[in-house]
């Protein structure tokens, strides 16, 4: 019998080598996805390309060994790329940002010991989506130069200018430096990615197993080699290609790792950057952990506090040896689960394979055109800020759309932390205006096994109630009956509906029977 179809108490086997047959192939798939993303995120960060590889290795091996999450995959993330880009500008060097990464890791460990792992539940989804959408927009804008073969400064090198004259002058100025070869590679890479990801092709195992980003990158190498052989005027070289150090020996390879510049340890700006990294990295890691637990076919619950500690140690290690900040990443985590990853062995495997790859074939990696990485990042950025996302948020109503849109505009016109503060303030104002009543009433507080628990939701149930509702449902005893009564409710936040839906999917394992009253209408409004 297929293990995934067995009852919950029979099928879970968390031993490190209990799923080798599926974990090893899953680790390889995650590596194929992570490699171009690690290089691309380094490019978006304005940091050395090798720093993204280091972060991928540390996220795979170090965090994978320490994290209690079974399916999480960690590494450099697009959400932190913006922070690093701005920090290099303000601190003057990537070595100083490495110090901030170490301090951010210390902050995360402290948060873990303070049991702050539930902090992500207190941020409204509208604000979080606004943060990610703004990062996606900036990611796309900053890749325009590389996509056209322009090797000048990043368009958002300083967020202080916002959408001022300098930004549009920079965009228009790119057209004076267009490389036809780079443009062709960018366009063809985008075509390959979109064609490869069509649902019709995903029915075939090969197209599901091999990621589109990898195919685009490999194809770009071939196209540039074709240019070199037959159309030298289109060929890309030098600063328009990946430039990783190539070692002739093991000792020389380890000499490539750089060390942080502690001379700025007294610079107050350093700690502002560290707080920014810690906040964004922790938020994304906690959200990814929550998503990973939902994707896990065994529905295992991860310790968010242990996850924070593991991410903190990962950032300390990455910062000391020249890597970007690391976080748990939803895209790689979902790829890991869908490819058969069931224990940390899969994420550790992806880190080990990446280490071997960068040691053994750096000259092949140095043939990759930056234009193809820009195409990959265009797609990553668009997924964060797609048109369909704006449509969904608009249909969700003003209570969702206003904080979402204000957060985007604030981040784009100021900086990440200021934008988050403004978006958070607007979210709280909008919600507190309606949040006058107790969110729910529990008729049976003792939660004895076999009891009937009646949870009556009030008129307004918001994201501020996520943690209390989740804890109430988590403490329901086995063999009980839970009645969720939404007959009095006028509005139930999407975050709360997601918690109830997650409870429904796991209640069967505890033999909990669920009855709902007038709840379906709120799910219908979401769709």
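Q: What amino acid sequence fits the structure above?
A:
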């Amino acid at each position: 019998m297929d293990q995934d179809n067995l009852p919950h108490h029979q099928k879970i086997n968390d031993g490190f080598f209990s799923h080798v047959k599926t974990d090893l192939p899953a680790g390889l798939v995650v590596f194929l996805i992570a490699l171009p993303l690690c290089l691309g995120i380094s490019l978006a960060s304005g940091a050395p390309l090798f720093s993204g590889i280091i972060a991928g290795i540390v996220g795979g091996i170090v965090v994978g060994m320490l994290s209690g999450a079974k399916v999480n995959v960690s590494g450099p993330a697009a959400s932190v790329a913006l922070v690093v880009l701005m920090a290099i500008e303000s601190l003057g060097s990537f070595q100083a940002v490495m110090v901030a990464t170490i301090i951010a890791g210390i902050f995360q460990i402290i948060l873990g010991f303070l049991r702050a792992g539930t902090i992500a539940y207190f941020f409204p989804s509208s604000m979080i989506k606004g943060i990610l959408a703004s990062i996606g927009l900036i990611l796309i804008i900053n890749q325009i130069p590389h996509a056209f073969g322009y090797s000048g400064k990043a368009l958002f090198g300083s967020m202080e200018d916002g959408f001022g004259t300098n930004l549009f002058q920079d965009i228009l100025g790119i057209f004076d430096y267009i490389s036809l070869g780079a443009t062709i590679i960018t366009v063809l890479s985008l075509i390959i990615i979109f064609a490869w990801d069509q649902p019709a092709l995903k029915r075939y195992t090969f197209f599901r197993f091999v990621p589109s980003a990898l195919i685009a990158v490999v194809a770009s190498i071939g196209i540039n080699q074709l240019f070199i052989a037959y159309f030298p005027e289109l060929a890309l070289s030098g600063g328009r290609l990946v430039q990783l150090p190539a070692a002739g020996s093991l000792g020389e390879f380890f000499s490539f790792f750089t060390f942080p510049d502690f001379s700025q340890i007294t610079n107050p700006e350093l700690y502002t950057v560290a707080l920014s990294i810690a906040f964004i990295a922790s938020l994304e890691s906690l959200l990814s952990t929550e998503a990973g637990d939902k994707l896990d076919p065994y529905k295992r619950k991860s310790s968010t506090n242990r996850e924070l500690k593991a991410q903190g140690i990962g950032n300390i290690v990455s910062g000391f040896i020249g890597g970007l900040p690391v976080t748990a990443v939803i895209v790689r985590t979902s790829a890991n689960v869908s490819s058969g990853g069931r224990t940390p062995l899969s994420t550790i495997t992806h880190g080990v394979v990446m280490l071997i790859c960068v040691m053994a074939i750096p000259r092949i990696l140095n043939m990759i055109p930056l234009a193809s990485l820009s195409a990959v990042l265009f797609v990553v950025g668009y997924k964060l800020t797609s048109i369909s996302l704006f449509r969904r948020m608009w249909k969700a109503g003003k209570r969702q759309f206003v904080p979402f849109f204000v957060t985007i505009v604030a981040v784009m016109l100021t900086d990440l932390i200021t934008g988050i503060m403004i978006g958070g303030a607007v979210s709280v104002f909008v919600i507190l205006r309606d949040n006058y009543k107790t969110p729910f009433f529990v008729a049976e507080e003792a939660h004895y096994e076999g009891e009937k628990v009646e949870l009556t939701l009030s008129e307004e149930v918001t994201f501020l109630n996520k943690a209390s509702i989740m804890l109430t449902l988590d403490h329901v005893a086995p063999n009980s009956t839970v009645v969720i009564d939404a007959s009095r409710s006028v509005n139930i936040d999407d975050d709360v509906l997601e918690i109830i839906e997650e409870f429904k999917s796991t209640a069967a394992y505890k033999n909990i029977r669920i009855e709902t009253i007038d709840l379906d209408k709120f799910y219908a409004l979401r769709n």
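Q: And what stands out in the fold?
A: The first strand starts at residue 74 and ends at 75.
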